[in-house]
Structures are given as structure tokens and as C-alpha cells.
């Protein structure tokens, strides 16, 4: 069941190794380590997706991280934290890097769990998936924005992408790879979300990540759900998630934890969710370390210091982790610790990453300042 998790707690774990604390059922300490690091190994991509966060480009940027720089980042990811994060290699299209297999091999050799989020282009084939499986890749994330080609192909900008996505998803599952389906939730896809969910179920995915579109990159404010519709969609998603046996998450909508928890008021309190700078970090193709790919503000660069240092110490990351620094409706909200709002949406729509999340109805209501 994909319910909101059952414990609260963002308190430090008293100097004990985080892994040991977690083994005893205590909450992970996201001030010390990320759960996931998503890494844009290149910005090149041959698709032209409507809401592309990265504004992907056709050719590789000569300034992207070199093979030597990549090794240093992998060393830090493997050894810079008490427990290494899951590493998601993304783009652009990671297959545009001709040294991708070497990167995967070096990551796996260092004991890192690797997931890949490729674009569905002629470069991606059953043979590539087989090779990744042999190299030790754990999971593959494919995008599916609608239940049929009408929506998906229009969204991805290339006819035939839907059919190939379905074929490759089935191949991935057949090879024993964990399959994650990513769905962009925008004004032009939300109507088909139930049908897309049915496809995800039928494919045998282990995870469905619904990306509530943030107006960054090629996405525009009018592509994004307004607060009431976003809230309704989260309610539907929370109910749907309880009927399936795999993980369902709402990226860009941390209020999902509030909505999911409200369905079971007598259950134990939920844990704060992973979000920007709090369990999550992003490396762009030139090495900038950001709280998220949707919050394009750098806390540092792996060209100057390790990601582990930026994650723990950069003022931007520390501020984003501190619910006491939130402003407006989120700052006064009783859920500010549990949820905290999408800092990416706040930044995209107001220019202030600590402002209220304009995608949440509670953030738009006048509230009393929270105590404590
Ligand atoms: S007001 Fe902000 S902190 Fe409260 S539930 Fe909404 S988004 Fe989350």
C-alpha cells in the first residue's frame, strides 16, 4: 500500500550512524544525507518535450562534466555520506553520453544503486536495457504522459514514442529491471490520469511518480494545475494509491503527504517527505548542485567542492531544510514540518524559494503565525 509513511521526526539522531538509527525504526536524518541524487549527465536530447525542465538541446555542451570529473563525483557519492544515496542518471538523455556505460560501471563498482531515466529515442533498445541489466542497473524510469499516443506523442514531440515506450517498458520488466513510470501532470494531461494509472498497473511497474508540472524550463504557468485542481488531483491520487501494491509519489506537490494522511486521521503521524534539499539533491550537466532540477538555483558546484559538503553546509540547502524560515501561508501552516510546500513552485511563481507554495489552497488562506 502506498500510504503516507507512519512516523514523524526530523530530529537529528544524536550522532549515531544514520543507518543504525533507521534500523531501529527512527526517521532518517535528511540534514546529513540525501536519499536520492538525480544527476543530469548531459543536457543533450533528441526529443522536444513540451514541458522539458532542462530546455534540452540537440548537441552535448562542451562544458559538461568530463569523464575525470565524473569519477570524483562518484567517489563522493559513494563515500561522502553515512549511507550512499540512490543515484538517478538523467538528462537530457543520458544515452547521448558515449561514456554512459563506463559511468554506470564505475558507479556500480563503488556500491551505488543506479537508476536510469533515458529518453525513448532510437538509441534506446532492448539490447541497451539488457546491457544495463548486466552492468548492475537496478531500475529504469520511462515517461508516460497519457494512456495512448494522442496525448503522449503530442507531449513528447515525436510520433511513435508511445508505442515504443510501452514495448520498452515490457522489455525492462521482462529483464527483471524495476520499472518506474514518470507522468507529467499538467492541464493537458490531468484529464487522462486515471487511464494512465491503469496503464502503469498493467505494465507491472514498481513505482509511479506523478510530476506536477512546475513552470520552469519550457513549462509555462498556464500549463500548471491551479491550487483547487491540484488539491482534487492529489485526493484522487491518494485514494488510488491505496488500491495498488507499488509506490506512488507526487513530485512537486509535497502536500500529498497532508492529503494522504487526512484520509486516515487515527493512524500514526506521517514522516516528513523527501523534497528539495531535504533528502534530495540534483547535479546539473556542468556540475552545479541544486536542491532540485525544478529549482534552478545552485548551492555550489562539484567542480569546486564535493556534493556532500554542499548538501550539508550550503546556506541555500540549510535554509530550505528549515521550516522556521518559510514565509507566508507555508510559514504559518501546521503542516510546514511535514510538507513545507514546493519550494520550486514558490520560486518559479514568486522568485522567492521560501515563499508560500501557490499550488496549495492552505497556503493561500490567511493564517496565524505558527508557534514553536
Ligand atoms: S500551506 Fe504550505 S506547508 Fe501547509 S500544506 Fe500547503 S504547501 Fe504544505
Task: Give me some keywords for this one.
single chain; 372 residues; TIM Barrel; 33% helix; 13% strand; binds iron/sulfur cluster
Low-pLDDT segments, ≥5 res: 1-21
Rg over C-alpha atoms, rounded to the nearest angstrom: 20 Å
- Overall body shape: globular
- Portion of residues in beta strands equals 5-15%
SSE string, helices as H and strands as E: HEHEHEHEHHEHEHEHEEEEHHHHH
CATH superfamily (homologous) name = Aldolase class I
Oligomer: single chain
For the sheet with most strands, the description reads: 11 strands, mixed
Main structural class: alpha/beta
Number of domains: 1
Instruction: Specify the helix fraction band.
Output: 25-40%
**Count of alpha/pi helices:** 14
Bound molecules: iron/sulfur cluster
Task: From the 3D structure, determine the CATH topology.
Answer: TIM Barrel
Number of strands: 11
Q: What is the CATH architecture assignment? A: Alpha-Beta Barrel
Span of the ends, CA to CA: 33 Å
Task: Output the CATH class name.
Answer: Alpha Beta
Mean pLDDT: 89
Amino acid at each position: 500500500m502506498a500510504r503516507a509513511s507512519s512516523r514523524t521526526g526530523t530530529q537529528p539522531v544524536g550522532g549515531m550512524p544514520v543507518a543504525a538509527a533507521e534500523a531501529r525504526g527512527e526517521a532518517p536524518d535528511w540534514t546529513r544525507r540525501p536519499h536520492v541524487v538525480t544527476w543530469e549527465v548531459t543536457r543533450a536530447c533528441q526529443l522536444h518535450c513540451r514541458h522539458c525542465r532542462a530546455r534540452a538541446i540537440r548537441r552535448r555542451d562542451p562544458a559538461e562534466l568530463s569523464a575525470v570529473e565524473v569519477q570524483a563525483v562518484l567517489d563522493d557519492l559513494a563515500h561522502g555520506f553515512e549511507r550512499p544515496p540512490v543515484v538517478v542518471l538523467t538528462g537530457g538523455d543520458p544515452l547521448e553520453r558515449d561514456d554512459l556505460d563506463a559511468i554506470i560501471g564505475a558507479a556500480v563498482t563503488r556500491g551505488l544503486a543506479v537508476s536510469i531515466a533515458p529518453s525513448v529515442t532510437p538509441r534506446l533498445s532492448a539490447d541497451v536495457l539488457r546491457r544495463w541489466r548486466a552492468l548492475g542497473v537496478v531500475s529504469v524510469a520511462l515517461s508516460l504522459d497519457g494512456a495512448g499516443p494522442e496525448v503522449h506523442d503530442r507531449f513528447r514531440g515525436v510520433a511513435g514514442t508511445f508505442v515504443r515506450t510501452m514495448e520498452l517498458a515490457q522489455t525492462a520488466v521482462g529483464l527483471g529491471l524495476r520499472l518506474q513510470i514518470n507522468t507529467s501532470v499538467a492541464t493537458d494531461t490531468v484529464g487522462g490520469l486515471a487511464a494512465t494509472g491503469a496503464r502503469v498497473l498493467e505494465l507491472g511497474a514498481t513505482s509511479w511518480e506523478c510530476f506536477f508540472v512546475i513552470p520552469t524550463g519550457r513549462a509555462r504557468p498556464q500549463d500548471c494545475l491551479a491550487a483547487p485542481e491540484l488539491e482534487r488531483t492529489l485526493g484522487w491520487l491518494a485514494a488510488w494509491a491505496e488500491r495498488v501494491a507499488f509506490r506512488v509519489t507526487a513530485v512537486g506537490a509535497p502536500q500529498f503527504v497532508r492529503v494522504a494522511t487526512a484520509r486516515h486521521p487515527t493512524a500514526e503521524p506521517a514522516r516528513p517527505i523527501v523534497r528539495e534539499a531535504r533528502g534530495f539533491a540534483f547535479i546539473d550537466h556542468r556540475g552545479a548542485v541544486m536542491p532540485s532540477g525544478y529549482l534552478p538555483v545552485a548551492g555550489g558546484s562539484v567542480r569546486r567542492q564535493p556534493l556532500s559538503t554542499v548538501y550539508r553546509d550550503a546556506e541555500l540547502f540549510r535554509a530550505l531544510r528549515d521550516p522556521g524560515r518559510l514565509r507566508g501561508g507555508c510559514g504559518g501552516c501546521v503542516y510546514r514540518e511535514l510538507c513545507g510546500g514546493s519550494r520550486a513552485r514558490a520560486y518559479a511563481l514568486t522568485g522567492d524559494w521560501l515563499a508560500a507554495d501557490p499550488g496549495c489552497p492552505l497556503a493561500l488562506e490567511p493564517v496565524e503565525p505558527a508557534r514553536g
